[in-house]
Amino acid sequence: MKFLETREELVKLAASLFNRGYSVGSAGNISVRVADGYLMTPTNSSLGRLNAGRLSFLDSEWNHISGDAPSKEVVMHRAMYQARPGIGAVVHLHSTHVTALSCLAPSEEPLFQPHTPYLVMRLGEYIPLVPYYKPGDPNMESDIFEAAMDAKAIILGNHGSIVAGPTLVHAVDSAEELEVSAKIALLLRGRDTRPLTSAEVRALMNS
Could you report the per-residue pLDDT of 30-48, keeping only the tens digit for each? Predict the structure, then answer.
C-alpha cells in the first residue's frame, strides 16, 4: 500500500474505533509499519479527529522525522515491534471492558479463558497481564517486550490493552475481538462455564 493510502487508512480505521466507543477523548494510539519506519498517531490526539497529513512519522530507529510529535506511549509500540518482527501494526486502546478487566484484583482465575473460537483464532490462547505503569513510563518497555514474545495481545494493568497484527486492518479487528471477549469474560466471571478443551484449542490453532 502506498504511503499516502496508509495514512488515510489509519485515519479511517481510527475514526471507526472512536465512533463506536472503543476510545474516548484523546485516549488510545495506533502505529503502522511503513517503508523506512512507522506512522503513529500524535500525542494528545483523538482517534476520531486525526489529520492524515499530521500523523507522526518515525524512522526505523524510532526517531521523530516529521508530522506532529508522536504519542508519549511510543515505548509500548516499540516493544511490540521488537518482540514480534513480523507484525505490521499495533493498536492500543482503553476500551471499556478490557480496561475493567485490567482493574480487577489479582485472582487465581485468569482474565481470559478460551470460551469462544474467535478469541483463539484471532489472538491465541494466552493473553498476559503486565503490571501497572504510569502512561509513557519507559520502564514498561521490557515487561511488554517479554510478554509480547509469546502473545499477540497484552492487558496493561489498570490501563487497557495493546494488540499486534500483520496488517493495520488485522490489528484493528483483533483489538475489537479482544474488547468483545473482555465483555464476555466479565459477564461469565464467577459462574460455572465451559471453556474450550485443550483439543478444541489445538484444532483452532492448527487450522
Answer: 999 999 999 999 999 999 9
Euclidean distance between CA atoms 173 and 159, whole angstroms: 20
- Helix, strand, coil share of the chain (percent; to 5): 40, 15, 45
Phi-psi region of 172 (alpha: psi -120 to 50; beta: other; left: phi over 0): alpha
Q: Residue 40 CA to chain centroid, in angstroms? A: 13
| CA-to-CA dists, residue 79 to 37, 38, 186, 203, angstroms | 15, 13, 28, 30
Q: Is the pTM of this model over 0.90?
A: yes
Q: What's the CA gap between 136 and 175, in Å, rounded?
A: 20
Interatomic CA distance for residues 181 and 175, integer angstroms: 10
Active site amino acids: 73, 118
Give SS3 for 6.
helix
Distances (CA, A) of 141 to 72, 156, 198: 12, 12, 32
**CA distance linking residue 54 with residue 42, whole number of Å:** 8
